[in-house]
Amino acid sequence: MDFIKKEIIDRVGIITLNHPKKLNCLCEKMVDSIIEALDDFSAKKIPIVILRAKEDAKVWSAGHDVTEMPRKMRDPLSYYDPLEKLLRAVEEYLGPVIAMVHGSVWGGACDLIMTCDITIADNTACFAMTPAKMGVPYNLTGITHFMNRLPINIAKEMFFTADPVPAKRALQVGIINHLVPEDELFDFTMKMAHSINTRSLMSIEVIKEEFRILSKAYPISPASFERVQGLRRKVYDSHDYEEAITAFIEKRQPHFEGQ
Ligand code: YXS
Fold first, then answer.
1. Cα separation of 102 and 180, whole Å?
2. Which helix (H) or strand (E) holds 164?
3. Does residue 62's CB lie within 6 angstroms of at least one atom of ligand 1?
4. Terminal-residue alpha carbon distance, the chain
5. What is the pLDDT, as a whole number, of residue 188?
């Protein structure tokens, strides 16, 4: 079953998340389909991609597929995991990737939004960053995605509260570039895509790569990196991490014990 719909309209690649049964969560199959579509668009030198959900989607994406998260003793966000591969594929795409958001966005999908180059949303959109709810020790590159887009106090509030940020506030704090009426979202997004397509793709390609390189230029010593990995391991080896996943699957509130 296809987890996405892929189309090209006037040299704009459009990827529509289409796994409503599991609220477009970023399971491995969904991620592989999106990466495959990006590779196909890249081979066809499509200058710009829109990543969207279906018009009637209440949830743009429910984030990482919790049922696919390792239960314990393994980093849930390591380099070759599906979510991380997807984020790099978006960052490395030859041209801009625009997230067009109708519906709620959760966890890893929020990180995906932060990794897209531009985000355009309607009033149904909201954005929740959920590691603290899931007992997950988020990873360093993921945190830089939020630090690169938001004032650090706003990024911290998103991580510490794990509460959804509604569309209007998302515009105020910079999660989204534009907030448009629901019935204008697609036309507004396509208009921007067409306008970008009239510019020099060569120049945009280099500028996007410069932004990518500079946005990752965080000096951190090997000792600090290893210390962070040690701290993170304590969390994903903990009762709290396992309890959060079990509670989600059992459809109940988790009881965190801080160990
Ligand atoms: O009961 P069935 O089998 O129909 O399945 C339900 C949900 O279990 C399933 N589902 C998910 N399955 C796997 N992974 C998910 N992330 C996920 N989210 C939902 O979809 C079916 C319908 O869900 P239901 O009944 O709850 O729908 P609803 O309309 O009542 O509520 C919609 C949501 C999105 C508010 C609710 O599903 C929800 O809160 N989902 C979890 C959102 C979330 O916290 N995602 C973060 C996942 S962890 C992650 O992304 C990172 C690792 S981190 O946490 O570090 O950022």
1. 10
2. none
3. yes
4. 40
5. 98
Q: Which residues of the chain have pLDDT under 70?
A: 1
Torsion of CA 35, 39, 41, 47, to 10 degrees: 100
Q: At what angle do helices 140-149 and 82-92 cross, to 10 degrees?
A: 40
Report DSSP state, residue 22: G
pLDDT of residue 166: 98
Ligand 1 pocket check for 86: Cβ under 6 Å: no
φ/ψ region of 63 (left if φ > 0, alpha if ψ in -120 to 50, else beta) reads: left
Q: CB of 63 closer than 6 A to ligand 1?
A: yes
Q: What pLDDT sits at residue 102?
A: 98
Give the pLDDT confidence score for residue 48 in this predicted structure: 98
Beta strands 12-17 and 4-9 are antiparallel
Q: DSSP label at 24? A: T
pLDDT at 1: 56
Say what the pTM is.
0.97
Residue 44 tokens, joined: 């066809």
For ligand 1, atom 48: residue with the closest CA? 64
Residues 162/133, Cβ–Cβ less than 8 Å: yes
- Angle at which helix 28-43 crosses helix 82-92, to 10 degrees, equals 20
Tokens of 116: 């897209």
pLDDT given for residue 218 in this prediction: 93
56 sits in which H/E element: none
Task: Identify any residues that bridge with 14 across adjacent strands, giving them in sequence order.
Answer: 7, 50
| 217, 218, 221, 225 alpha-carbon torsion, rounded to 10° | -110
Provide the annotated active-site residues: 64, 108, 138
Model pLDDT for residues 189-210, shown as the tens digit of each residue: 999 999 999 999 999 999 999 9
